[in-house]
Amino acid sequence: MSAMNTPIEALQIRRREAIASHPRRAVRICCTGCRALGALEVHAAFEAELAAAGLTRDVALIKTGCQGVCAGAPVIGIDPEGILYLGARPEDVPEIVRTTLLGGNVVERLCFRGADGPLPKRSAIPFFAAQNQIVLDRCGRIDPTRIESALAAGAYAMLEQALTTMDPEAVIRAITASGLRGRGGAGFPTGRKWGFARAAAGDVKYLVCNADEGDPGAFMDRAVIEGDPHAVLEGMLIAAYAIGARHGYVYVRAEYPIAIEHLHIAITQAREWGLLGGNILGLGMDFDVAIKAGAGAFVCGEETALLASIEGKRGQPRPRPPFPAQSGLWGKPTNINNVETLANVPAILRMGAERYAGMGTPTSKGTKIFALAGKVAHTGLVEAPMGVTLRELVYGIGGGVRKGRAFKAAQMGGPSGGCVPARYLDLPIDYESVKEVGAIMGSGGLIILDENTCMVDIARYFMDFCAKESCGKCAPCRIGTTRMLEILQRICAGEGQPQDVDKLEALAYQVKKNSLCGLGQTAANPVLSTLRHFREEYMEHIALKQCRASVCSGLMESPCSHACPAGVDVPDYLTLAAEDRYAEALAVVQMRNPLASVCGRVCDHPCEHRCRRGDMDEPLGIRDIKRFVTDTVAAPWRPPEPWSERETQRRVAVIGAGPAGLSCAYFLRFFGHRVTIFESLPEPGGMLRVGIPAYRLPVERLKLDIDFILSTGVELKLNAPVENLDALFDAGYEAVFLGVGAHESAPLKGIDTAAPGVLDGVRFLRDVTFGKVSGPLGRTAVIGGGNVAIDAARSALRLGAEVTVVYRRTRAEMPAYPEEIEAAEHEGIALVFLAQPTGVVDDHGRVTALRCVRMEPGAADASGRRQPVARTDSAFQIPCDTVISAVGQKVAARDAWGLRLTPHGTYETDPAALATSRDRVFAGGDCVRGPSSVVQAIGDGQRAAGSIDKLFGGTGKLPDNLKLSRSRYAAQSEEPATRPRPPLAALAGRTASFDEVVATLGDGAARCEARRCLRCDLEKTCQ
Amino acid sequence: MSISECTDKPLDLSPVAAMVADRAPFSEGDVIDALQDMQTRYGYLPRAAMDEMARLSGVPVARLYGVATFYSQFHLQPHGRHAVRVCRGTACHVRGAAGILSAISRHLGIEDGDTTPDMQFSIESVACLGTCFLAPVMLVDDQYYGNLTSDKAVATLKRIQARDGAPNAAAQPAAQKGSAPCPP
After folding, report:
1. Residue A584 lies in a domain
2. Contacts of A292 in chain B (CB under 8 A)
């Protein structure tokens, strides 16, 4: 530095030198967050490889901070091309150097996987395309341990500008005009806060940077300090100038060693360069910064507790006022800002307050950094303008929910926040809107929760956290959080009491109202928000002892068995299958589910959705193994032993020989009661017989299961409709179970299924079963997206039709099973999405076309699904000869039975006992739930059988699960493996007949597959 | 009484003087820093060293203990040579941290917060390591391990045990998991 230059000129010269000395080519490796997945090893490999290739001088190898797309760790950026490589290992480095740095080509396998193939350019990746990085601008570009790197990228330029061109009031005015609000969570306007501190009397003032990022699930402050510590220091300097502080502290969590290290280096270097200390830049300002490492106490994120901790005391909060701006550290005026807030300051001055305020919503300006984690495909650090929607964050930037599961909620704001459910996916996020729906912006932690997350467990988790972290000073928080935790633990353990929910809610409001500091005042939020949006889950835990996400271990042995409405002991039969003990495996299934062959083929397998193996590679093929077992064990099957132990002579009438009725009858026989099934159709099976086409469920397989059930001593009367329940009671039946299904089609406006050429989907399938479909169908348009629509379409195809399915939403929203949709498409059925039929065009009683309008996704409904709305002037026609309407089913409720109905027209029952409004009459399956699944109906039949047994003075308790096998195949259990797909019949012949399409797994494949089971049940039973 | 206090070797208290002198004039504001130094030096906060710091600094020993027992970072008992920190943050929680913790706990035969009898490992669950994108995560000493499964976590500990040459793994019957049938 020449003695002739002023400090500012010297800084400018050094900045220019830093820019000039930088090679154009650069390899940037995230060496902070990505360290956990081997970034330092990759860096070392680059060092060696670049040296070997003689490129050390031409290529800058830069250790950066977080580059955002953390799911792809370690992340490598290559410039000037703007290429991004994800997940590289040291052994990939020679290829990167050879192919990309020397050869100018891309290593495709290391690129981000887009929907249409690899995306080598950072700018093309959707994760980045939707972002607006202002605060994170330098993070991931510069080397945070070299101040030259930051200076070359513009660090401290705004400090220089503020000190030379603005007075402190002008700085405060600019920050106020920008609309910046505290990013730590509460959202207090930063400019006003600075104004208070500036106005406070006293010549000693302190500036504190709160980097005690304690919210579990937030890591943006860590990333900013690690990746661009100079942005924070520059923000602190400008703030100190504005309020007149000479001393600053950064209070950092002890759990962030890299952040402390980088901050320490940055402070030392800034001092060396005259940017901290006395007479900064020769302009007369004095300011220095010290680091205070926290010692592990969440409450220290609260400002008064934080100040106590800096003073070396126990980090306990105190009442406000006085506010820190009047009396803070050692009684002096103190201004406290969060890391992200301070890092915004230079950015605001750089772009101008007005432009900054142009981003965001009316009340919340600028951008917000979100830490995207949990069950989202692309976890990472995201900076987007305020007002961004959850849908954009989760589905746009985040790439959707992992494993294609359903989005359930986003946890925002950590232990002080709440869960935002799917219906608010389109809500523009700002401080106010998030608060309105029961959460808080907080520090911006965004944990995505999927269908496999239990909301009661989430509330329990946060309450456990708050109870542990409560500092103990005030009673409402200390005792209230503990009492709430006890209630939540009880509910999760299956010991919840009916009054617990009200008690919990009352306590929550007490704690919220009466606690001393922010920790206690917000500790109840996770409880209140889950109660507000997911109250039914609490009720299920308490009344039904059910955890729909299969998480609460106190309620279950294994997630799969718990998810099965029939409660089949899945791990036991899988392991028996793995040991070639097929007859025993079948017996285990039949202890809970008498329709084993049926469920081996057409079950919607909720067990597989909850399988923990699915988090590692793929869920077990539970249904396929069940089918393999039923196809392997020779019939006829004998009833399990406990079925012949009792006879009570009490008589029960079951109406309907569908899955619910058959199951109920089977379990009533276990209890020893005499059962008669009344079926109005000429054959038993209900929808299994007349709704599911034979190519999915061959009649002879269904018959095997029904024969098995009848062999337990059930009487079956066919062609026997029941008009009057009183007659049954008069005839000596002491209880009745209704399993009459939902055999009527729901109507669709504009489509008259009584007109010629227009068919009703459910009736069509029934007619196909009994061979009653006459005449050629010709070109057939099937309306609907559920299983009935696809079944009707594939059946029509087999009858020689040329088929188009018309659905009003998108493919991803079709309720039909994905494998069925795929098979339909494969067989040559055309699918038309986002089209709503409005009428049929006919020519003298002959259908010629289906009239439709184009739809587009509109606002989200309560489940988060976007309601389709018609596009203007989008009418079109699909030429056809036949129309089949299959848009839903409903119950043909009989008024004569005198039972109360729900608003949906189904029979009203209490969910625990399945009792209807009439004494001794129970109901289950589709006639209670509306169109649902086979296994749900089987579970209902089972539950009702227990209720009827209790009515007769029995225990209602089912036989114990057998627990025949306790092996775990550890040798291969956690090796990544894909599940085998059962073979399919050749396409050529299959659409000409109703022969079964899907074949059974091979012997070896089934055994291998069964061995992938992790035996979650043993975790519990063997401890 | 802790293990080290039962041993016959007296604790070397000379480093405590520097912890106080380096901060002269020692004030209450230095307590947390000084205790952090003490823990780095001894691995925990020994009773004798606390007394010595109180004597040299003039800060009452009750005040030192008040701070030491408030913050979760401080230990009053000796800890193992390797600190196994299992993250229980929200992201880790929803991605199975409880399973990781129980697998580690079973493997080492100790509960969360305890130290193995051979002083090789301590298990501490922590509120959040701030590495949510790698969930579930654990930190062994200063090395992060992300995207864990129970087997991966246990394998990591086994590697460390093998490197240290400790027979711990074989000696723990609880560590045996696998094809051997589990007793009913």
Report:
1. yes
2. 32-33
A385 and A343, same domain (yes or no)? no
What 3-state DSSP class applies to A568? coil
> Residue A478 is part of a domain; what is its CATH number?
3.10.20.600
- Residue A863 forms part of a structural domain: yes
Q: Which residue, of A528, A554, A580, is where some domain finishes?
A: A554
- Averaged pLDDT for residues B154-175: 70
This complex has an ipTM of: 0.87
- Nearest chain A residue to B143, by CA: A36
Q: What are phi and psi of A248, to 5 degrees?
A: -130, 150
Mean pLDDT of A400-429: 93
In this complex, is the C-beta atom of B91 within 8 Å of any C-beta atom belonging to chain A?
yes
Tokens 């193994």 -> residue: A625
One domain for residues A471 and A616: no
SS3 A882: strand
Q: How many residues does chain B have?
A: 184
Whole-number pLDDT of residue A634: 93
- Residue-wise pLDDT for A603-649, tens only, equals 999 999 999 888 888 999 999 999 999 999 998 999 988 898 889 99
With CB atoms and an 8 Å threshold, state whether A36 touches B96: no
* Residues A549 and A566 reside in one and the same domain: no
> Residues A294, A254: contact at Cβ < 8 Å?
yes
Say if residue A884 is in the same domain as residue A916: no
What DSSP letter does each residue of A795-864 carry, written as one string? HHHHTT-EEEEE-SS-GGG--S-HHHHHHHHHTT-EEE-SEEEEEEEEETTEEEEEEEEEEEEEEE-TTS
Claim to verify: residue A738 and residue A821 sit in the same structural domain: no
Between CA A676 and CA B176 the distance in angstroms is 53
**What gap in Å lies between CA A421 and CA A424, rounded to an integer?**
6
The residue range of the domain holding A438 is 367-554
Token pair 């360290």 in the structure block, residue: A35
What's the CATH code of the domain at A341? Answer: 3.40.50.11540
Give A264: exposed, middle or buried? Use CB within 10 Å, 0-12, 13-18, 19+.
middle
pTM of the prediction? 0.90
* Chain A contact probe: residue of B79, B132, B137 with most A CBs at under 10 A: B132
Q: What is the pLDDT of residues A820-834, one digit of tens each?
A: 999 999 999 999 999
Q: Which of A461, A492, A961 to mutate to probe the B interface, most B CBs <10 Å? A: A461
CATH number at residue A592: 1.10.1060
Domain ranges of chain B: 14-70, 82-165
CATH architecture of B82-165: 3-Layer(aba) Sandwich (3.40)
Q: How confident is the model at residue B175 (pLDDT cuts 50, 70, 90)?
A: very low
Q: Are residues A74 and A159 in the same domain?
A: no
Residue A469: predicted pLDDT: 92
- In eight-state DSSP terms, residue B36 is H
How many folded domains does chain A comprise? 6
Q: What share of chain B is helix, strand, coil (3-state, %, to 5)?
A: 50, 10, 40
Q: Considering the domain boundaries, does residue A129 fall inside one? A: no
pLDDT in tens, A323-338: 999 999 999 999 999 9
Q: Cβ of A257 and B178 within 8 Å? A: no
% of chain A at pLDDT higher than 90: 83
- Which one of A357, A378, A393 terminates a domain? A357
Render pLDDT for A107-128 as a digit per residue (tens, 0 to 9).
Answer: 999 999 988 899 999 999 989 9
From B67, B129, B144, residue closest to A314, measured CB to CB: B67
The minimum CA-CA distance between A707 and chain B, rounded to whole Å, is 35
Residue A311 located in a structural domain: yes
Instruction: Judge if A876 and A897 occupy the same domain.
Output: no
Same domain, A270 and A205: yes
A-B CB pairs within 8 A amount to 169
* B93, closest residue in chain A (CA to CA): A461
Residue B8 has pLDDT above 60, yes or no: no
Q: Tell me, what's the pLDDT at A971?
A: 46
